[in-house]
């Protein structure tokens, strides 16, 4: 069971106090810091942590209940529920072939270009700092010859979080590492370039997205994300075509 002291530090400003508490608690639930069956801290502890009134806390808990994340048992407390099924049928296990990955990239182009626009408009200083940390991890991994899939996934998830719209976060979370082509396929190995050249281009594309979000330029962020995902799609299409053109051994 989690104690009130494990909650994130209170933010100084929220666009909406109740929504701010909802985002903080739901984020911790999604990260499994509160697991199904865990009891949330009492109202008084949440009030103290976030500096809000009892009315705000009760409104936030009502929203979490409506979202199927928690259940309140009167006289006992509020407990975390099992995550609700989304019914989208696009979990990571269903993304197997090159065609599957291309289809996911098409979905991401539609979704994440707008997510980048919103992130540049709504991001907090803390969120953009964490994006920078993920970008730094990707660069260090490249320099040390290590994989950077985990940091890549986190970078895109942080952009989704910065939209202040939980549905972007939930959809990317359901896909997991399937959003990164090289996590499902040996994308660098399918191409003509050296793997380091491939990853250097990918990192530069990420940096363009990051810089646009950092300077709060929604249009540039949208364009940079579209360029990145469209390039990923084209690189994969070209690699697939080369495989098809190879003579059978």
Automatic annotation (TrEMBL):
Gene3D superfamilies found in the cross-reference section: GntR ligand-binding domain-like, Winged helix-like DNA-binding domain superfamily/Winged helix DNA-binding domain
Region named Disordered: 228-249
PANTHER family: TRANSCRIPTIONAL REGULATOR, GNTR FAMILY, UXU OPERON TRANSCRIPTIONAL REGULATOR
Top-rank taxon, per record: Bacteria
Organismal lineage: Bacteria, Pseudomonadati, Pseudomonadota, Betaproteobacteria, Burkholderiales
Alphabetical list of SUPFAM superfamilies matching this protein: GntR ligand-binding domain-like, Winged helix' DNA-binding domain
Alphabetical UniProt keywords: DNA-binding, Transcription, Transcription regulation
Pfam annotation, one family: FCD
Record InterPro entries: GntR_C, TF_FadR/GntR_C, Tscrpt_reg_HTH_GntR, WH-like_DNA-bd_sf, WH_DNA-bd_sf
Protein name: FadR family transcriptional regulator
Residue ranges occupied by any HTH gntR-type domain in the UniProt entry: 15-83
Start-end of Basic and acidic residues biased regions: 231-249
SMART domains associated with the record: FCD, HTH_GNTR
């Amino acid at each position: 069971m989690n104690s009130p002291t494990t909650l994130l530090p209170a933010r100084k400003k929220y666009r909406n106090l109740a929504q701010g508490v909802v985002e903080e608690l739901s984020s911790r639930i999604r990260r499994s810091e509160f697991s199904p069956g865990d009891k949330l801290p009492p109202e008084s502890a949440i009030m103290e942590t976030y500096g809000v009134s009892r009315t705000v806390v009760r409104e936030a808990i009502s929203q979490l209940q409506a979202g199927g994340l928690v259940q309140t048992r009167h006289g006992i407390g509020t407990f975390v529920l099992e995550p609700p099924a989304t019914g989208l049928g696009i979990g990571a296990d269903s993304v197997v072939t090159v065609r599957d990955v291309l289809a996911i990239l098409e979905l991401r182009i539609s979704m994440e270009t707008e997510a980048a626009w919103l992130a540049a408009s709504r991001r907090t200083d803390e969120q953009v700092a964490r994006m920078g940390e993920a970008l730094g991890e990707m660069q260090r991994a490249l320099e040390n010859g290590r994989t950077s899939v985990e940091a890549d996934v986190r970078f895109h998830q942080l952009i989704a979080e910065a939209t202040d719209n939980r549905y972007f976060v939930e959809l990317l979370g359901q896909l997991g590492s399937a959003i990164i082509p090289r996590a499902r396929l040996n994308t660098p190995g399918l191409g003509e370039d050296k793997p380091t050249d491939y990853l250097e281009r990918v990192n530069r594309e990420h940096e363009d997205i990051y810089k646009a979000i950092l300077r709060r330029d929604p249009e540039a962020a949208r364009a940079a994300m579209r360029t990145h995902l469209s390039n990923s799609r084209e690189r994969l299409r070209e690699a697939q075509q080369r495989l098809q053109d190879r003579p059978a051994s």
